[in-house]
Amino acid sequence: MNEYDSSRMADLLNSSHGYERTERAEEADMVLLNTCSVREKAQEKVFSLLGRWREIKEKKENLVIGVGGCVASQEGKMIMQRAPYVDMVFGPQTLHRIPRMLDEVLDERSQAVDISFPEIEKFDNLPPPRVDGVKAFVSIMEGCSKYCSFCVVPYTRGTEFSRPFDDVIEEIVGLADQGVREVNLLGQNVNGYRGLTHDGRTVEFAELLHYVAAIEGIDRLRYTTSHPVDFTDDLVDAYASIPELVSHLHLPVQSGSDRILRLMKRGYTSAEYLSWVEKVRRHRPDISMSSDFIIGFPGETDQDFEETMKLVDSVNFDHSFSFIYSRRPGTPAELLDDNVTLEDKKRRLSVLQKRILNSAGRISEQMVGTLQQVLVEGPSRKDPAQYSGRTENNRVVNFDGDESLVGQFVEVRITEALPNSLRGAIMSAELKTVPAIDNFTPTLKFV
Ligand code: SAM
Predict the structure, then answer these.
(1) pLDDT tens column, 299-313
(2) How much is the average pLDDT of 116-142?
(3) Looking at ligand 1, which residue's alpha carbon is closest to its atom 20?
(4) Cα(355)–Cα(236) distance, rounded to whole angstroms?
């Protein structure tokens, strides 16, 4: 989500001030730090990076330094108290106001702070996204109203707010027009999407998927992230009726212990989670599953952790984003006794990560010899003589190819499984070639 927000900031500053991106802070007129406060460690990094930028500003006094994202939303003016050389502070919902704040800083040499939540205006004030490549993120909703006891997101990004349906479709049609073939629908809980249409109807997430899949040119659909309580039967059925929807599902469970799930205020049991996975696997037996896990939540015992491991074994996860619990200010869990020792937390995390890594290795081995649909993204990073793309279950595959394949779906026979990627050979390329961008007018198949 932050990556997406950052690219929108770059688009915005390009259209308002003609700014171009640079990866080197020393070359920049303005440096922006887009922050995350989900865990404490990310938050700590903010001030150490700001310290380095301060040294650059000492040599280049006109350098404008801005801090955005959730740490900015949480700390507001406090950031400037601790780092007085920071010129502007904005939250996730006010990033569209950066150009105005920049003018204020440049014209009046004053500091600007805006961390309010005017969510309705944001998307109306951003230019159409500029595309770089064949895949794109599309933000469809913001914020979260689930109030899990450990999580800071509802307080930093606000409650759930869905972008209007027509706007989402228009943005994706525009992306298809620029050669995008795969979209990843973004939000804290995308399956909580409830977007209004121009005539006042509400479109829910599963229905949105049908419409997006129908856009000419868009042939692969992903979404990040969903919440199990909003995993409706309509969404399960989408796996039967929408071939564009990848056979990979990221559905964060957090823990396999019902006692911990209750303390986390997740709203489901481990048995319910397993039943959602089973229902999806009725339509897609080979679907690869991934999840977020929080290890060492206050009060987690060895028995609770064993239940998490039991669930891990029954689902056979392919990937995880797993972290030690981080106490967040202002959340209900902050008041719980954080009584699991660091040693236990680290040991449990390592057991879980090794188990999931082993199962990912096994899944990669099982893919050897199979045919996989791969969207060709460009030359391989390690060997530019080779080309590279991703399978539906998000593995990088390298193979012999050429530039003409970029943006096409090809069938690749997997020949070797390596620890972080696969190798393969192209068996067949798409019959339909992607029309040249200039004369490509995407149409909606049934909207
Ligand atoms: N909406 C999804 C859900 O909760 O089902 C995930 C969105 S959340 C912002 C991303 C992930 O950050 C969570 O799934 C959780 O694993 C992790 N996370 C959030 N708060 C955390 C905390 N206090 N300590 C450790 N991990 C945390």
Answers:
(1) 999 999 999 999 999
(2) 82
(3) 151
(4) 27
